[in-house]
From TrEMBL, chains A, B:
<dbReference type="Pfam" id="PF00356">
    <property type="entry name" value="LacI"/>
</dbReference>
<dbReference type="InterPro" id="IPR010982">
    <property type="entry name" value="Lambda_DNA-bd_dom_sf"/>
</dbReference>
<protein>
    <submittedName>
        <fullName>LacI family transcriptional regulator</fullName>
    </submittedName>
</protein>
<dbReference type="InterPro" id="IPR000843">
    <property type="entry name" value="HTH_LacI"/>
</dbReference>
<dbReference type="GO" id="GO:0000976">
    <property type="term" value="F:transcription cis-regulatory region binding"/>
</dbReference>
<keyword id="KW-0238">DNA-binding</keyword>
<dbReference type="Pfam" id="PF13377">
    <property type="entry name" value="Peripla_BP_3"/>
</dbReference>
<dbReference type="InterPro" id="IPR046335">
    <property type="entry name" value="LacI/GalR-like_sensor"/>
</dbReference>
<feature type="domain" description="HTH lacI-type">
    <location>
        <begin position="33"/>
        <end position="87"/>
    </location>
</feature>
<feature type="region of interest" description="Disordered">
    <location>
        <begin position="1"/>
        <end position="33"/>
    </location>
</feature>
<keyword id="KW-0804">Transcription</keyword>
<dbReference type="GO" id="GO:0003700">
    <property type="term" value="F:DNA-binding transcription factor activity"/>
</dbReference>
<keyword id="KW-0805">Transcription regulation</keyword>
<dbReference type="InterPro" id="IPR028082">
    <property type="entry name" value="Peripla_BP_I"/>
</dbReference>
DNA sequence: GGCTTATGAGTAACCAGTTTCTAACATCGG
DNA sequence: CCGATGTTAGAAACTGGTTACTCATAAGCC
């Protein structure tokens, strides 16, 4: 025999003595009890053991007790792998995010994890690293190993999502809406958030704004930018390429100074915080010289100096709701309509009156 | 002979005029192709299809082509559930953390997710919510659905872990060492980190320290506190119960002022940041009046005002290493010895000379 | 008391793969 | 030309549960 089968399993004793079947191959988790052994020990059929383990009411109390005792004695627990195959469900749901380092997705992760955990479901997590095609592959793969999917802020183009939508179902979209797709989506009214921010800033007398743009593939970034353009007909707007992390914002500080804006609208709280620190390092007063706003209200935003004016979005709530929707879909219900959460403006210390020129 | 040969051929309708078989039960994912259908289409046996799908070299090129074509035509992909059962492995690893909202664990999550993803493994995540017994149950459950575990900062008592250690294997411990346990651990030399901090603070003339304590169950907290007590024989140390989140630190600010310490050692960066903001709100100058240090070096620590002096630990590296160790263990190798990472002191702006009384 | 109905539990057919064994066939050496 | 050896691919036995049938028994009814 060629050694091609040597897949890591240590064939302990393949001795010529030939005991019945010492250790066939890998599967056996070291003598774990099987349903057959329990059935034998209790003197009943495998079907009866299965019924007892699943709490079927059609078993006599006496047998229930016997099976329970045998299962206990053998330390038996049904094999999840076998149940998956037999039942056709996994007891697992999956979450795909572009970036696990982003508090936005961490919030969804937490909410989803807790809601799914409470319902006794396990959670598979995968990070697509902002790569659209990778994301599609991960999603398909994850879906095959779960009963349902939550796609957070998917970077894949709408038509690509539609083309695989059927194989992804049931699934829920978070932080994005895709019209043609037959999946409920939970999203943020980015335009409303931006309008609130702009109203706040113009109310303070700001006329020259800079926008620290998020990642190019982000739908949220596109919406926020579009809303900013729409909301600011009489304003002067400079768009600075930036990113989504602290360092991106920090690195953009000189450009902010260079463009002469009196107020900076950050794509999110991280770039805003980074820019805030960067500006102060350059000797720019916040908010005396320049006002700064963020987006998302990450836990940290309250603890910058000065605290960041931002727009709050219910991150964990999205996770919880995503579970609710997914649960409904998995039960064949409708999953409900799309929801757009209204963000809430939080005015803190990083914004102030525009400096009189 | 009994009908035991009924290997997958569906005797479509044996019922009296009933419909073919509308929807037997759950399993069928709406007409997904099975290995039997592919075998039939290609005119070969199921065994051959299996061999082709797994790249076995013992199939003639002609058959390989035929099977490939049939699989392609039917859009066939092997059922992960069936493979799990047949192979006895899941292609999945699991991570248990006490709190998904903590950047410390997010770092491990990221590192692990990326390393496992690169190796084509999926990642199951569960949050124990700081509850020791819950954690044990989650770990056992997660282990049964995966090939290996990473336990981050487990809250469960050492003897409890030892008692279930065998059923958890293979697994790796992160942020904690448990002597009796036969699992490699990747931990931080908390004592060294604390010593560095204390040396730095005493070098600046501080003699009265306050420690913002972490969660009671945390092993890291116990180590840091013990090291602090040991490192400060000539110092006055006040221990303030606190927690691990921003708000905990913020709420502790008045107590800090009350105890008269000139330097605050936070359990981690979050409580330190919270305290920093709280102190400044109370009119206390940092670092002029009070110095503050954190621990962990979360991404945010660089962006507080002033930036936080802290001790850096390689969070993502721990995740990557955890994967390496787990991978070795899953292959029957040793998994290597325990590793204690040496943290690195980062002096930033939140610490300064002790005020002359 | 015989017939119908309920009930409890066993039999065997699934779920969808993997792998051992075995048999047929081709190749090679003597 | 025949036996030994080497390949290939199929048959069938697994992986460990679930559940549709089936059947025996007991209870209910007339």
């Amino acid at each position: 025999m060629r050694a091609s089968t040597g897949n890591g399993d240590q064939e302990q004793d393949r001795d010529g003595g030939g005991r019945p079947r010492a250790g066939r191959r890998g599967p056996r988790p070291a003598g774990a009890a099987t349903i057959s052994r329990v059935a034998e020990a209790a003197g009943v059929s495998r079907a009866t053991v299965s019924r007892v383990m699943n709490g079927s009411p059609t078993v006599s109390p006496e047998l229930v007790a016997r099976v329970r005792a045998a299962a206990e004695a053998l330390d038996y627990a049904p094999s999840p792998a076998a149940r998956r195959l037999a039942l056709g469900r996994t007891g697992t749901i999956a979450l795909i995010v572009p970036d696990l380092g982003n508090p936005l997705f961490q919030g969804v992760l937490r909410g989803l994890s807790q809601a799914a955990g409470k319902a006794g479901r396990q959670l598979l997590v995968a990070e697509s690293d902002e790569d659209p095609e990778e994301e599609v592959i991960l999603a398909l793969e994850a879906r095959r190993n779960s009963d349902g999917l939550v796609l957070a802020s998917p970077r894949a183009p709408a038509e690509r999502l539609c083309s695989i939508g059927e194989r992804l179902a049931p699934f829920v979209l978070v932080y994005r809406e895709v019209p043609g797709l037959g999946a409920p989506s939970l999203s943020i009214d980015n335009a409303a958030g931006v309008r609130d921010l702009v109203a706040h800033l113009t109310g303070l007398g700001h006329r020259r704004l800079a926008y620290l743009a998020g990642p190019p593939g982000s739908a949220g970034n596109a919406e926020r930018l579009a809303a900013l353009r729409a909301a600011a007909p009489g304003l002067e707007l400079t768009v600075l390429p930036c990113g989504s992390m602290f360092d991106d914002g920090h690195a953009a500080a000189p450009a902010v100074v260079g463009c002469g804006a009196s107020a900076v609208v950050g794509f999110n709280d991280m770039v805003a915080s980074g820019a805030l620190t960067g500006l102060r390092e350059l000797g720019v007063g916040v908010p005396e010289d320049v006002s700064i706003t963020g987006f998302d209200d990450i836990p940290f935003a309250r603890y910058t100096t000065p605290p960041l004016t931002t727009v709050s979005i219910p991150k964990s709530e999205l996770g919880r709701q995503a579970w609710e929707r997914l649960w409904a879909l998995m039960n064949g219900e409708s999953g409900g309509y799309n929801v757009r959460y209204q963000p809430r403006l939080l005015v803190r210390g990083s914004t102030g009156p525009a400096p009189s020129r």
